[in-house]
């Protein structure tokens, strides 16, 4: 089923002459882990806002084309109704997390949705467990690290159990460890709960390793779309657009290893291909320092 269908979408912010989205078409199916990348200014945030309804319900501008979420035009829905099926997570965890403690933060969004106290309790527990914050329930939010705050923002977004989660560069302020934790949480939501993940992200090392399918945006247009391996093979295009090809993929492309879908996108996969490549050439993959026995 189509979670998201976008057809010939154009959007220009009020007061601007340049379209932020410029004829974009896109389809995301239920259960996909879909990654959207592109340089700053490519239109990623604008696209996220078109999916979660901030456009047209909050931001004004010229909108043309179709955005359907579960078959319903976003413009004809209301932000409250959309929030039940689309959970949103933004870049800046600091400004998203507003309550004094972890439990209140997750409960906050649920309170306006008419859940019974028992349902709320269940959902708070489930959401915190899914993001690995079960032991943090009473903790003041001011004590959380950046990564924990972002995981809390994800817990709050997923507590109503939306069928799709849209995340706009959720790891932009996190270090590699915090970034990996967020991607692992998202993979778990995707695999175990069947939640559709749509994530805007510039960190292509993670995006390519975790996503099923990717889209590259440039100046509000789709320039590449396909599996991470298919997209990352287009090194010249990505270099031109300003999207980073992960080092492991770049090395494989240079050595001519990892054909088609077998292009390595994780270090483990890359290492095993390089070892095979070296063995074929009669070179030991291991350092040749003498063993002292
Ligand atoms: P990205 O998330 O890929 O960095 P954005 O969607 O934020 O891209 O921006 C796309 C274009 O829209 C940019 O040219 C940006 O300057 C413009 N833009 C973004 N937000 C606004 C706004 N509120 N008002 C006017 N122009 C905006």
From TrEMBL:
Belongs to the ABC transporter superfamily. It is a peripheral membrane protein. One of its GO terms (molecular function) is ATP hydrolysis activity. It is found in: Cell membrane. Residues 4-244 form the ABC transporter domain. SUPFAM superfamilies: P-loop containing nucleoside triphosphate hydrolases (SSF52540). One of its GO terms (cellular component) is ATP-binding cassette (ABC) transporter complex. Its main location: membrane. This is ATP-binding cassette domain-containing protein. The keyword Nucleotide-binding applies. Keywords: ATP-binding, Cell membrane, Membrane, Nucleotide-binding, Translocase, Transport. CDD domains: ABC_cobalt_CbiO_domain1. The keyword Protein biosynthesis does not apply. It holds the Pfam family ABC_tran.
